[in-house]
């Protein structure tokens, strides 16, 4: 009978007892805990429940976008258009809301515009065979331009009572956006870890040709991935717009794509796809949130905060480059 | 009554631009037979097998499966006929575990057909590995850290998982160590014992004499020699591959 030995080093190490394994799988969690403890020592107010909830509230928009970005990046792509699509979805949502005076229509519009933009990205990448970087770069410019044109370069304010309640309501002490973010995190986690769709996204990012030869409908999966990301951007747009009751066509969503990508990368997802976890992204988002909060509490000049954030991203990735 | 073949490919032609890769090749495969497909680089071996596995669609030609005319126009169509292929590059997903690779595209599902049934996935993967005598300690290991022989074994196990009637193997022993080559050849014999028809492409001519029942030689996109293995010696085989078979009437 045929006999082959498995690599011993892979099997004899007892999972859980081995630190290097723990580190490579959960480095972002460990980094988060370290930064959390440092922040707690630096400032007493950091641990206040209200402050913790503030952090969660602040990261919820980027967090929802980062979930979509995780799925796209696991498939081996990237979506640069999320910030612009957020502005576009927000603007159209407010226009539809004011015209129809129905919150339901406003909500539906934000979700539909986001999903449509994502669908178009997906079609360009899969059927059009355009590199995702280029296709979504085009969408980034286009969506921002449409948002600016439709609102004459200014802001759009909602004129319907109750629209603000979407983001400015809470369940007990917990604001709705936080619940939405955490709920979506669980959903996306299940989608990616437990379903065929999720498995195929990983396969696609790992070896697209192999996925194709396994009779997986690669094009459909790709379209699904970008549409899902766009849909999540639509939800984020809704939260962003509702929070201030208005959306700015020029500044809303600016550089969100970079924050989302940063969170995903810090969370341990590989740029080339196939490897990474939704939970990693959750902690990547939280880590950036805690960092921002800490710097504000410590009165670090806002001009310097970008530098600190940049350093953290580089250091995180340097430490992860262990496989 | 004419003999019923497991697979009969008739007059398969395929061009890539100006290059005629296949110039009307006929291939017959009996049930439970191991056919060695040989030829120099560019003779069209891999192209011919890719038409059989649905990856390449031929310009001309017919496929007959168990006597019935069939269309093989996609990898899915081939899989539906129980034709499985182990590709030269193995086509494994490095970041997925052993069981996930074996079931890729055909995961068992539960809960209203929504969730992957991981328990069944791993048990069935383990059963198949054991049946083929492949010793891999856990089906939850990622394949990226495995040796060439292990990866080859997983690719073969994946192909065997859904009880194929025809198994195509493209260079399964390329780039393997001596021990691993023996393991793969053993594996091919095990597969044959289970009644599967096998087409084996290889450059290692000594392997052919170990496992094959019959050899077919392609030369510049045509079949120029097709005889039982016992009619060949290493010498006459090499002559055939070079394009001048000795005293053969091609059937």
TrEMBL record, chain A:
Superkingdom of origin organism: Bacteria
Keyword match Manganese: no
Localization in the cell: Cell membrane
GO cellular component assignments: plasma membrane
Record membrane topology: Multi-pass membrane protein
Keywords, comma-separated and alphabetical: Cell inner membrane, Cell membrane, Membrane, Transmembrane, Transmembrane helix, Transport
Transmembrane segments: 20-41, 53-74, 80-97, 104-124, 130-150, 171-192, 223-239, 278-294
CDD domains, A to Z: TM_PBP1_transp_AraH_like
Predominant localisation class: membrane
InterPro entries: ABC_transp_permease
Keyword match Transmembrane helix: yes
One GO MF term attached to the UniProt entry: transmembrane transporter activity
Cross-referenced PANTHER family: ABC TRANSPORTER PERMEASE PROTEIN YPHD-RELATED, ABC TRANSPORTER PERMEASE PROTEIN YPHD-RELATED-RELATED
Protein name listed in UniProt: Ribose ABC transporter permease
From TrEMBL, chain B:
Short name of any one Pfam family annotated for the protein: ABC_tran
Annotated PANTHER family: CARBOHYDRATE TRANSPORT ATP-BINDING PROTEIN MG119-RELATED, SUGAR ABC TRANSPORTER ATP-BINDING PROTEIN
Highest taxon listed in the record's lineage: Bacteria
GO terms, molecular function: ATP binding; ATP hydrolysis activity
Start and end residues of each ABC transporter domain: 7-245
Name of the protein this chain belongs to: ATP-binding cassette domain-containing protein
Keywords from the named record: ATP-binding, Nucleotide-binding
InterPro entries in UniProt: AAA+_ATPase, ABC_carbohydrate_import_ATPase, ABC_transporter-like_ATP-bd, ABC_transporter-like_CS, P-loop_NTPase
């Amino acid at each position: 009978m045929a006999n082959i030995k498995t690599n011993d080093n892979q099997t004899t190490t007892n999972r859980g007892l081995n630190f290097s394994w723990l580190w490579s799988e959960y480095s972002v969690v460990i980094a988060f805990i370290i930064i959390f403890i440092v922040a707690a020592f630096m400032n007493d107010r950091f641990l206040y429940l209200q402050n913790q909830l503030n952090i969660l509230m602040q990261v919820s928009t980027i967090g929802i976008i980062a979930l979509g970005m995780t799925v796209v990046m696991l498939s081996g792509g990237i979506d640069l258009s999320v910030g612009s699509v957020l502005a576009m979805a927000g603007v159209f949502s407010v226009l539809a809301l004011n015209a129809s005076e129905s919150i339901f229509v406003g909500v539906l519009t934000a979700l539909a515009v986001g999903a449509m933009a994502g669908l178009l990205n997906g079609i360009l990448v899969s059927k059009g065979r355009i590199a995702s970087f280029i296709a979504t770069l085009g969408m980034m410019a286009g969506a921002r331009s449409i948002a600016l044109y439709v609102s004459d370069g200014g802001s759009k304010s909602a004129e319907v009572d109750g629209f603000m309640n979407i983001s400015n309501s809470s369940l007990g002490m917990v604001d709705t956006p936080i619940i939405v973010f955490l709920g979506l995190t669980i959903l996306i986690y299940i989608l990616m870890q437990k379903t065929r769709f999720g498995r195929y996204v990983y396969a696609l990012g790992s070896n697209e040709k192999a996925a194709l030869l396994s009779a997986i409908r690669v094009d459909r999966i790709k379209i699904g991935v970008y549409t899902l990301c766009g849909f999540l951007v639509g939800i984020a747009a809704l939260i962003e717009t509702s929070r201030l009751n208005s959306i700015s066509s020029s500044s809303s969503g600016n550089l969100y794509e970079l924050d989302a990508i940063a969170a995903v990368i810090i969370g341990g997802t590989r740029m080339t796809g196939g490897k990474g976890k939704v939970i990693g992204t959750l902690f990547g988002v939280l880590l950036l949130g805690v960092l921002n909060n800490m710097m504000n509490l410590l009165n670090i000049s806002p001009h310097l905060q970008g530098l600190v954030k940049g350093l953290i991203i580089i250091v995180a990735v340097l430490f992860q480059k262990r496989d | 009554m004419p003999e019923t073949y497991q697979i009969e490919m008739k007059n398969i032609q395929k061009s890539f631009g100006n290059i005629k890769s296949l110039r009307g090749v006929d291939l017959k495969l009996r049930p439970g037979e191991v056919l060695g497909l040989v030829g120099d680089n560019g003779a069209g071996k891999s192209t011919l097998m890719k038409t059989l596995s649905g990856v390449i669609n031929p310009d001309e030609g017919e496929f007959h499966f168990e006597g019935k005319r069939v269309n093989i126009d996609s990898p899915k169509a081939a899989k539906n006929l129980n034709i499985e292929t182990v590709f030269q590059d193995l086509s494994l997903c490095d970041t997925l575990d052993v069981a996930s690779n074996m079931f890729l595209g055909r995961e068992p599902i539960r809960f209203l057909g929504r969730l992957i049934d991981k328990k069944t996935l791993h048990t069935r993967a383990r059963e198949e590995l054991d049946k083929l005598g492949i010793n891999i300690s856990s089906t939850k290991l990622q394949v990226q850290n495995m040796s060439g022989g292990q990866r080859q074994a997983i690719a073969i196990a994946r192909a065997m998982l859904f009880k194929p009637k025809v198994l195509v193997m493209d260079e399964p022993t390329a780039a393997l160590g001596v021990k691993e080559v023996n393991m793969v050849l053993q594996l091919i014999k095990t597969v044959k014992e289970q009644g599967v028809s096998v087409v084996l492409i290889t450059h290692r001519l000594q392997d052919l004499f170990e496992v094959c029942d019959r050899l077919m030689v392609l030369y510049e996109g045509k079949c120029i020699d097709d005889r039982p293995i016992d009619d060949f010696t290493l010498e006459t085989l090499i002559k055939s591959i070079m394009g001048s078979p000795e005293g053969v009437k091609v059937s």
